[in-house]
Design a protein that fits this description.
Layout: E1 21-22, E2 26-31, E3 35-41, E4 45-48, E5 57-60, E6 67-73, E7 82-87, E8 97-100, E9 110-113, E10 116-123, E11 129-134, E12 141-144, E13 148-149, E14 152-155, E15 160-162, E16 173-182, E17 186-198, E18 202-209, E19 232-238, E20 246-257, E21 260-270, E22 273-285
Parallel strand pairs: 1-3, 2-12
Antiparallel strand pairs: 2-11, 3-10, 3-13, 4-9, 5-11, 6-7, 6-10, 7-8, 14-22, 15-16, 16-21, 17-20, 17-22, 18-19, 18-21
């Protein structure tokens, strides 16, 4: 059992000279609010993705809401190496997801974590949560309780299940979105999870906007937030035919940004049979 503020003493490795906690093979991050702690990765390691069968991330507590982490390289450069992940708010025990914003390694079953100084964030709006981060290539166990509070918004809007924008069209259009703001430099991220009875083809559209959608529009987020200006759109076509029950997870985005207002939304047009659908959007300010 980790006592508040006592976990750091459990390590046989001293802290770095500048007060950073040197991470180990197993790092247990606990807390009740979104906050950060300064850490150091002593040598290059790897983080295996749970969705690919790895055990790099485990989340407990917070019931079924989103609980996650971010590991952000501490640097004065404009480009930061960032890793982000967490447990989606689902009801069937989907493994946590982890993604990297550092380039090609995002296509691998594990992520390369370079040696260096980082800020480690616990992301939650639920009390008494625990995130376990395993880094292959390191040794020892560390307990961490971040206390430097930062601003974050976690949105899980319910998907609107509509008859499309044309009267009489099949009821196969799901959409939702939310707005948020980063106070300084930060990261925005969203992910979409689906539970399917059977599947033929699905078009997933993600949008990012700086003017709010028309609230009177029958489907303001579908497709691609059509009533907004200053918007960007990302399309993920899923044509995998599967007559069995299955799950699918899509990353809408994971973008480092400056201080900004930004909306995030999605739409799903599916020729399959969807049992359940969940969406989470995050705005995390680094400081």
């Amino acid at each position: 059992m980790l006592l508040p503020g006592a976990g750091l003493a459990a390590s046989s490795d001293p802290m770095a000279e500048d007060g950073r906690v040197v991470l180990g093979a197993k790092n247990v991050i606990s807390g009740s609010e979104t906050a950060k702690i300064r850490v150091r990765v002593p040598r290059t390691s790897r983080l295996s993705k749970p969705l690919a069968g790895g055990s790099g991330l485990e989340v407990t507590g917070g019931k079924n809401g989103f609980v996650g982490f971010a590991l952000v390289e501490h640097t004065t450069k404009n480009k930061r190496i960032t890793f982000i992940g967490g447990r989606l708010p689902d009801r069937v025990g989907l493994p946590p997801l982890v993604m990297g914003l550092a380039g090609p390694d995002n296509s691998r079953a594990d992520l390369k974590v370079p040696a260096g100084d980082y800020d480690l964030y616990l992301i939650t709006k639920s009390p008494d949560v625990k995130v376990t981060l395993r880094l292959d290539g390191l040794t020892g166990r560390k307990g961490l309780r971040p206390r430097d509070r930062v601003t974050a918004r976690i949105a899980t809007p319910d998907a609107d299940y509509s008859s499309s924008v044309v009267d009489g069209a099949p009821k196969n259009l799901y959409s939702a979105g939310a707005d948020g703001r980063t106070r300084g430099s930060g990261v925005v991220f969203d992910a979409l999870w689906q539970q399917r009875q059977a599947h033929l083809n699905t078009l997933n559209t993600f949008c990012y906007y700086q003017s709010k959608p028309d609230p009177l529009h029958p489907a303001p987020y579908a497709p691609g937030c059509p009533t907004t200006s200053d918007r960007a759109m990302f399309v993920a076509n899923d044509g995998l035919v599967n007559p069995q029950r299955s799950q699918a997870v899509h990353y809408g985005g994971g973008l480092t940004v400056g201080p900004t207002y930004l909306g995030q939304g999605f739409s799903v047009t599916s020729a399959g049979l969807l049992d359940d659908l969940e969406y989470v959007a995050l705005w995390l300010s680094f400081d």
